[in-house]
Known about the structure:
By secondary structure, the protein is of the alpha+beta class. It is built from four helices and 22 strands. Among the domains are: about 50-60 and about 240-325, Elongation Factor Tu (Ef-tu), domain 3 (Beta Barrel), CATH 2.40.30; about 65-100 and about 205-230, CATH 2.40.50.100; about 100-205. The strands form five sheets. Strands 2-11-15-13-12-16 form a six-stranded antiparallel barrel. It has a four-stranded antiparallel β-sheet with strand order 3-10-8-5, with no helix packed on it.
Amino acid sequence: MKHLIKKAIVVAIVLGIAGVAAAWYFQKEDGQTVLFRTAEVKRGDLIVSISATGTVEPEEVVDVGAQVAGQIVSFGEDADGKTVDYGSVVKKGTVLARIDDSLYTADEAVAEAQVRSADAGVEVAKANLEEMKAKFRDAERNWFRAQKLGPSEALAQSSYDAYQSAYETAQANVTVGRATVIQAQAAVAQAQASLKRTQRNLGYCTITSPVKGVIIDRRVNTGQTVVSSLNAPSLFLIAKDLRRMQVWVAVNEADIGKIYPGQPVTFTVDAFPGETFRGEVGKVRLNASMTQNVVTYTVEVITDNSSGRLLPYLTANVQFELNRRNGVLLVPNTALKWMPSADEIAPEFRQTSKKPSGEKGGPQLGVETSRGQGKSTAGMVWFPDGQYARPLQVQGGLTNGATTEVEGKGLTEGMKVVTGLQAGTVGQAGVNNPFTPKFRARSGKSK
């Protein structure tokens, strides 16, 4: 029984193979139907561009820091009366945060006391000066009388000398008194300057917005201590105007020579798929950067953001427009590259050239097939005609690597052009499914 089953299976396999062979045999005898892959000739806009990646940045950002050290005790309120936070709209002078000011209030009190003490010192110095002036006037009178008498029996020489010394000493003391007043006044100025410094430091305990804008980053929390040293700690990042944004794009050195101010730019962001934003090149920064031996330049692209849809720091896929053609006929580049085999060409477009004996050959095209990419290049497209393909000479224009601008006599919008062969069709090399058995086709009548 088992032997019969095995025999039946073998017979079925043999019959199946015979059926496939017969089908292939007779199909080749009758001619095989070629199935072409096609695409439409379309009319549209062609843009030749350079692709790069960048980051959406606010056009102008102000980094608000702290000039004094201390603990954050509270935050201010924004234009809507809410606590200042990410996205808060603030005006110039809006209180952003307050730092504990107890130490700075004490310093201010000390400075005020020093100013009052210096003021008192000025008054003392002035009073001493007046006293010295009075003593000087008394010594001056005594010395004037002593000069009239001179050293004599009425005035001893020692008394004469004492009056002279007292006069000169009083005169010097007046000079010293004037200098003391000036010194006291300078001490007042110094104390007042110290008071202003302490008052300014006290004012720094209240962090205010220097501009009108939107807070895009808040880097501190209540209770956090900020320490101001050589560099002011950053507390808030404020964008002045989010209605105008920039895209900072890293452009390879090989392409930077094609970038210029005012150049049209389009870009997309992952946050809004399918939506294209427009802008123009603002400037090309000269400070290049090198990463793994690759030199790139940062290009600033200016774009309008009146809708407010673009958010800071989104990743942008940027296209710098190099050239554009509007309303031209377009074909895929695959249509320009595809070439049919000899038996796929319509018979009237074939011609046979004689080959020397022993040299392989076959039907040759009677048309020129030069093609290329770029401007003003001759090329050829093929359009299907049943199981054959017919050629059409075209002139190529701009190409973006995937699509090419073409024009030619008889070429119209909507025409089908061949881009290749469908799967399972005998192609240019006559190769079908590699697993299909190959049989030799009959070349003539049976004998």
